[in-house]
Design a protein that fits this description.
The structure is a homodimer of 510-residue chains. Chain A is built from 20 helices and no strands. The N and C termini of chain A lie far apart (95 Å). In chain A, helix 6 runs antiparallel to helix 7 and helix 16 crosses helix 20. Chain A has 2 domains: 182 residues, no CATH class; 262 residues. Helices cover 79% and strands 0% of the residues of chain A. Chain A is mostly helical and 510 residues long. The C terminus of chain A is likely disordered.
Chain lengths: 510, 510
């Protein structure tokens, strides 16, 4: 028994160690495989730090630079970041903060030099208190916090170090000079490493992130609509779970993207990558697209919410609208995919191409709705739907513009001017015939969720228009390639015109 | 003309300067007034930095500590943060990183000591490369990045500094000792300042942030419903703009709160504030509440979306549901406000108290819906609504639990088993009577948006249940005070029970 125990113990220990090591290796492998640039970046940092340490380790180099070499090491470790933009941003903050602090410290030193030692100590103490308090307060300003927080911290640190040291060291100037050279060498290595050797660009990351967000939304919508209409035909329960997870994961990435987008755009603004082309990198336009996509994403959340509503629409009613709804959703998906494709390849998308099949899908849905007028439609349906869509689009735009620019005080006026006559009469008219419609009312109760579903879907189309608009703007700002007519593409130029006409005709009605 | 110009120039310059100064002062005043703790924190930093500088400036102190005093200054500037939790977190990261790096560096030094100078240089170079690469890679692990990013950076920095210096300096041990003392003094000042002199607590911030988010959502809902039902009665256009802005601002703060919540909770986990009471600060529970509130917030976004739908419901139809909807919304608002109040005062809320008037409001809405059966209701309405609500609540919970724990594979099965008979007949039955219902169908078309609005409102009630649940859990975890019966409070204990009965009865039906 004892021998067995002794035998067993090492083997279980070995097994456990193996298990832990195995899972650790798995994790390391996963982190590396998810983004191989991480491995390259780690090697770059290792190489840079070693290179800069040679200043200290190699005798001839050390004779040249001396103790100050430590500042080069510090600069490389602190400043070298994953992307070029982040490195430049941090480097600039550090450099500018240090320079400003040094200048100010020398100015104070110059003023205090004339006086006695006690006065100098008091003067230095007071200036440290003053600068310490004011710079800390400065860091609470939103703009400073967002862009220059690190720079202000470095400023305060350097100012204190120089002011305090200068009290004890006589030749501060020489010290400062030596350190500045070293910081310069460190910065040089950082710039070389981040810009020229396997560079990672924040702009590129932002670009790819935007593309994958659009694709994610497209997948979400498709999965939503498929789940809604096909859930009763499904046998396997697991499929639903996977699909639900997909929907959730895909739109969640969009909803939570705000801070990532803004950081990437901020870093991208430091990257000199495209400046030799016609433009600066349009980081802010990507941020705008991000916020339109979030706006769109909230619509997807609502659509997904209606999957869980408990008043189930009978299958027969669903079947009536299944094909047009799936068609519309697949057109929205296709449009999003095309938009993603056009951004990925940096070429303009054809707006006519995008809206034409969408309009067709809306028409189909309209026809389906008309075929069941008791469920949804008003009397003058033939003219209503395009108008309704034009209005939906324009209101969604107003709504968006209102919130993102807080101007636009006139656009809402038109809404309130709607004619109000004849409705009270209709209300009275309906009440007596209550019992007569007792059976038919069954259908309306169960049509309620599908009404919500359809209106959310149409709302998504209206929001899609905003997305298209911002992506077109991106194409303009970022000088995308011209749209090329593919072989599999049918172009209908008149279509766009007709939407404009609808908008105009509506305006004249108002 | 010339004299006039000369006269005018200084005056405009003065005016401009005055204007710039004025706006600057205004900004400074605003930043300080928004949160007066900022001013206190700035003064605290100024004071600490000055105090620590005295080590350098005062002769007797300097004799004791020498050049190393600079490390105390550095520690104070870098570590002292706005809240106690952030300071402790950063301080721990810095301290632990430094200690670990020093130990490792001395180990390597111990190994390399035996050999010749050239071998030592190669050994140091290789170890720097190895540690540089591996720590940088380590920073890409999500858990490390979230909690220990700064510590790993400090580790790398310190390791390099010590390894490199030890090559040139003989008595590294003495150097390290001196610096450690200074870092200790710096840390001591930071701890004193952040924990004992006007401390700011991340936990407190998170707590207040959560309360204000709940209140913001309450205001949003109220504003939404008021805007929806009263917009045609309003005269002044500006009112709408303000109200729309309010809705937007209030729920926007909730939707974008994820990263703030997580940072605050992370810092709060470092605060020793409540540990002497029965519990650790339940930061993670606040994060959970934050995510439930965001889930609730998406519902408010959808509700607000229906304000802009272009198919306007006639005033007569709206009037039918105005009172019950406003009643329900005001009950939801009141519940949220009570929840906010209970969290603010750290006392349990009475769930019976919360659900009782809500149930009443739902009943009222139900009655209103029943009074217009042609618009919304199925035949067996009397039994349907409570069941529907119970199901809504349970599905919303399922949905939530599914996404936040990714378990729960069985709950959806019940939904698919719904009976499907008799519906195809109804579909056929309706078609021939198309022309007959031409006028009445007008009403259904215009009831579509109000159907969506009502169902979204009811969905919100279901989501409110999740919020209540998480807040009750918070009450348990954080040892809130017991709920006290106020004078203005009517308690109905049976109410809660009836909801449970509904849930059970529904389960037995399935």
């Amino acid at each position: 028994m004892t021998t067995e125990f002794v035998k067993q113990k090492p083997s279980t220990f070995m097994q456990k160690t193996k298990g832990v090591l195995g899972s650790l290796c798995g994790k390391i492998w996963k982190v590396g495989r998810d983004d191989p640039r991480r491995v390259i970046h780690a090697l770059k940092v290792g190489f840079s730090v070693t290179a800069v340490s040679l200043l200290y380790l190699m005798e001839p180099l050390f004779k040249g630079v001396g103790e100050n070499a430590i500042w080069a090491v510090m600069t490389v470790v602190v400043v070298l970041e994953f992307t070029a933009g982040a490195t430049l941003c941090k480097g600039f903050n550090r450099g500018f903060g240090t320079m400003l602090a040094a200048s100010l410290a020398f100015l104070f030193e110059f003023i205090a030099r004339e006086y006695g030692k006690v006065f100098r100590a008091i003067f230095i103490g007071a200036s440290i208190f003053l600068i310490g308090t004011s710079t800390t307060f400065l860091r609470f300003f939103p703009k400073v916090k967002k862009n220059y927080d690190y720079g202000v911290l470095v400023f305060l640190l350097t100012f204190n170090l120089i002011t305090v040291s200068s009290y004890r060291v006589d030749d501060v100037m020489k010290l400062a000079k030596g350190r500045t050279y070293m910081i310069g060498i460190g910065s040089g290595i950082c710039i070389l490493m981040s810009l020229f050797i396997f560079p990672n660009w924040s702009g590129e990351d932002l670009h790819n992130h935007t593309v994958s967000k659009i694709e994610g939304l497209a997948k979400s919508i498709e999965a939503c609509v498929t789940t809604y209409f096909c859930e009763e035909e499904r046998d396997v329960e697991r499929d639903e779970m996977i699909s639900e997870d997909q929907i959730y994961e895909n739109y969640k990435a969009v909803l939570d993207s705000k801070s990532t987008d803004e950081t990437l755009a901020h870093h991208a603004s430091w990257e000199p990558r495209y400046t030799w082309q016609c433009h600066k990198f349009p980081g802010q336009q990507y941020v705008k697209i991000g916020s339109v996509l979030r706006h769109f994403g909230y619509g997807v959340v609502a659509l997904r919410g209606s999957l869980q509503t408990e008043i189930r629409t009978p299958r027969s009613v669903k079947l009536l609208f299944k094909d047009p709804c799936i068609h519309l959703a697949s057109e929205v998906t296709k449009s999003l995919m095309e938009l993603a494709y056009s951004i990925r390849n940096r070429q303009h998308c054809s707006p006519e191409l995008l809206t034409e099949p969408l309009q067709q899908a809306l028409q189909d849905l309209d026809v389906a709705l008309k075929s069941q007028p008791r469920l949804f439609l008003g009397p003058n349906t033939a003219q209503n739907t395009p108008k309704m869509l034009a209005m939906l689009t324009s209101t969604a735009r107003q709504k968006y513009e209102h919130h993102f620019s807080s101007i636009n005080t006139e656009s809402h006026t038109s809404i309130n001017k709607k004619p109000k006559g004849g409705q009270d009469g209709a209300g009275k008219f309906l009440r007596p015939s209550l019992s007569k419609f007792a059976i038919t009312s069954l259908e309306f109760s169960e049509a309620l969720p599908i009404a919500a579903f359809v209106s959310l879907l149409v709302e998504l189309v209206a929001r899609l228009d905003l997305v298209i608009e911002e992506i077109e703007e991106l194409g303009r700002v970022a000088c995308f390639k011209e749209f090329k007519h593919g072989d599999d593409v049918i172009l209908d130029v008149d279509r766009r015109k007709s939407t404009e006409i609808n908008l105009t005709s509506f305006a004249s009605v108002e």
